[in-house]
């Protein structure tokens, strides 16, 4: 069966060559300039950690966006924006609009107001889905420390931000069609690609245009006015500094190791001279010699330059072993002297190689 | 500052002139203030000094600043208490109904006060129980015939208020 067309049979996993959009060249290993710049915006004028972004910050971000990016003027006069999210407190509502109110304390038209839907739901920001359970902490920065004696670092870690969607209704209330047109033009230009961004504490947060509806009161009997509602969804996220963790990292490593002190040259546990002879030396004058026999070898010859008592301590693939000193077979104790030739002959217990380990106790 | 232009009111002057209007008003005020003597306290919110939130313009009960409380007389009508609940019949709550206050405009002018949307009004229900209400309709527009004497000139305002919990406003 043929492979599916979408299946990639050759994936290049090596770092990509420099890309033209990065001045310094993006080699896939270093942090790109723009990413570094964005990171610096987040921690600017503060600690090494990002600042909290909570509901009020996002509301402020939306208000600033409407005030600055959707700023509308007609006939040289700016349409005022009520610079607060209106809430239940009645006097607060009044106090925000008094500067452009009539004799009857009604708000003068035209004006723009931002009304937030009270409910804040789990977000649809695609970069922040529910991917990490249990508020797991992630490394954010290593910060150098100095306590006057030691250099070290603190590890700053934060959990994954929580995505939230907040819906805002931006309403324009006015008496003239040209004011509607002007505001609509600005909104359309700003949201020509469906979304725009507000800037909250160093983070770019997307705002998506959802719908436009008309709520104008055009009645024969009552006062007429235009009212249009632009519904926007802010796809934000919550970062709470109470959840941040700062932990000291390793600032000094101590390596402990232990040794056999019986072979110290001096001090406690070192060999001592008592009556011109050394004591406290274990395995003194002992020497081990390993004899390897090839597949076809069964004999090994050793010429001694010292006096020694020879014992067999280990053998492999050997069923029996014979010793000859200077051509004379030896039974029992094997004792060689200077100049002696020891011939070791083995009988293998199976085919292949074999080995014998002899322990020689040297004496004078 | 230029003086505000004044327009003489001469309608129904054959039957009812400004002297009659003043007399009727004085008599009504004497009855309301002298005989009825319903006393209320106005807590006019100081919107500049109140410690408000930057984003929402909200203030906690301890953060609301109000101008010196002023006692005034008005005709008071309080609707019967409302028995309701917060959640589909659960978490029952019983609280006073809305309060309707009818006050002479001249009286407000004499006291040099104005009642605005969102101001708080205290009403001493008993010797040791003051309840607070928030102005939901300051009755500033008195263009209807009912607020005039025979269509001559408006003379009182009807202010409607709803009850506020101590969580919103604690008064004194």
Broad CATH class of the largest domain in chain A:
Alpha Beta
- Structural category of chain B is alpha+beta
Number of helices of chain A: 4
Biggest sheet: strand arrangement of chain A: 3-6-9-8-7
**Poorly predicted tracts of residues of chain B:** none
| Low-confidence segments of chain A | none
β-strand percent of chain B reads: 25-35%
Number of helices of chain B: 2
Query: What multimeric state do the chains show?
Result: heterodimer
How many discrete domains of chain A? 2
Query: What is the end-to-end distance of chain B?
Result: 38 Å
SSE string of chain A, helices as H and strands as E: HHEEHEEEEHEEEEEEEEEEEEEE
**Estimated structural class of chain A:** mainly beta
Numbering strands along the chain, what is their spatial order in the largest sheet of chain B?
Answer: 2-1-7-8-9-6-3
Provide mean pLDDT of chain A, rounded: 83
Strand content of chain A: 35-45%
Summarize the structure.
The complex is a heterodimer of chains A (364) and B (172). Chain A is mostly beta strands and 364 residues long. Chain A has 4 helices and 20 strands.
Descriptive notes:
The complex is a heterodimer of chains A (364) and B (172). Helix content of chain A is 13%, strand content 40%. By secondary structure, chain A is mainly beta. Chain A folds into 2 domains: 33-248, STM4215-like (2-Layer Sandwich); 284-363, Sandwich (Jelly Rolls), CATH 2.60.120.10. A 5-stranded antiparallel beta sheet of chain A has the order 3-6-9-8-7. A 4-stranded antiparallel beta sheet of chain A has the order 13-20-15-18, with no helix packed on it. Chain A has a 4-stranded antiparallel beta sheet with strand order 14-19-16-17, with no helix packed on it. The two termini of chain A are 83 Å apart. The mean pLDDT of chain A is 83. Chain B is α+β, with helices and mostly antiparallel strands. The mean pLDDT of chain B is 89. Chain B is 15% helix and 32% strand. Chain B has one domain (18-163). Chain B has 2 helices and 9 strands; from the N terminus they run αββββββαβββ. In chain B, strand 4 (82-87) and strand 5 (90-95) form a beta hairpin. A 7-stranded antiparallel beta sheet of chain B has the order 2-1-7-8-9-6-3. Chain B has a two-stranded antiparallel ribbon with strand order 4-5. The chains are: A mainly beta (364), B alpha+beta (172). The interface between A and B is medium-sized, with 19 and 22 residues.
């Amino acid at each position: 069966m043929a492979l599916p067309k979408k299946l990639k049979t050759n994936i290049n996993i090596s770092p990509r060559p420099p890309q033209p959009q990065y001045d310094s060249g993006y080699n896939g290993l270093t942090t790109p300039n723009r990413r570094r710049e964005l990171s610096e915006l987040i921690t600017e004028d503060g600690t090494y950690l990002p600042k909290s972004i909570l509901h009020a910050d996002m509301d402020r971000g939306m208000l600033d966006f409407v005030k600055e990016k959707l700023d509308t003027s007609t006939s040289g006069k700016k349409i005022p924006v009520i610079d607060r999210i209106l809430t239940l407190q009645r006097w607060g509502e009044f106090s925000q609009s008094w500067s452009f109110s009539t004799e009857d304390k009604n708000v003068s038209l035209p004006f723009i107001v931002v009304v937030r839907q009270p409910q804040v739901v789990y977000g649809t920001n695609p970069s922040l889905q529910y991917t990490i359970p249990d508020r797991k902490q992630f490394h954010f920065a290593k910060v150098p420390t100095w306590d006057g004696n030691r250099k070290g670092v603190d590890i700053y870690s934060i959990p994954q931000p929580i995505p939230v969607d907040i819906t805002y209704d931006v309403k324009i209330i006015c008496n003239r069609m040209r004011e509607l047109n002007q505001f609509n033009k600005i909104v359309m230009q700003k949201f020509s690609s469906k979304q725009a961004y507000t800037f909250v504490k160093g983070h770019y947060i997307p705002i998506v245009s959802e719908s436009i509806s008309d709520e104008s009161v055009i009645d024969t009997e009552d006062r007429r006015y235009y009212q249009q509602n632009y519904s926007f969804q802010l796809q934000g996220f919550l970062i709470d500094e109470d959840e941040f963790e700062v932990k000291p990292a390793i600032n000094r490593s101590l390596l402990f190791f232990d040794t056999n002190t019986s072979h110290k040259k001096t001090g406690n546990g070192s060999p001592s001279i008592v009556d011109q002879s050394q004591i406290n030396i274990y395995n003194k004058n002992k020497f081990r010699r390993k004899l390897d026999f090839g597949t076809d070898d069964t004999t090994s010859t050793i010429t001694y330059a010292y006096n020694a008592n020879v014992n067999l301590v280990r053998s492999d693939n050997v069923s029996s072993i014979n010793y000859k000193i200077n051509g004379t077979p030896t039974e029992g104790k094997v004792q060689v002297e200077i100049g002696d030739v020891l011939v070791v002959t083995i009988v293998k217990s199976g085919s292949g190689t074999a080995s014998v380990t002899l322990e020689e106790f040297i004496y004078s | 500052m230029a003086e505000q232009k004044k327009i003489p009111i001469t309608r129904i002057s054959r039957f009812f002139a400004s002297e009659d209007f003043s007399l009727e008003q004085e008599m009504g005020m004497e009855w309301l203030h002298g005989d009825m003597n319903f006393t209320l306290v106005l807590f006019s919110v100081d919107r500049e000094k109140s410690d408000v939130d930057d984003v929402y313009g909200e203030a906690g009960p301890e953060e609301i600043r109000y101008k010196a409380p002023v006692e005034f007389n008005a005709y008071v009508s309080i609707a019967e208490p409302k028995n309701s609940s917060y959640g589909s019949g659960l978490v029952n709550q019983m609280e006073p109904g809305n309060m309707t206050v009818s006050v002479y405009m001249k009286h407000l002018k004499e006291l040099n006060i104005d009642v605005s949307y969102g101001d708080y009004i205290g009403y001493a229900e008993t010797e040791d129980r003051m309840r607070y209400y928030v102005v939901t309709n300051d009755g500033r527009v008195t263009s209807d015939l009912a607020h005039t004497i025979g269509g001559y000139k408006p003379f009182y305002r009807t202010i409607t208020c709803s009850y506020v919990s101590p969580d919103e406003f604690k008064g004194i």
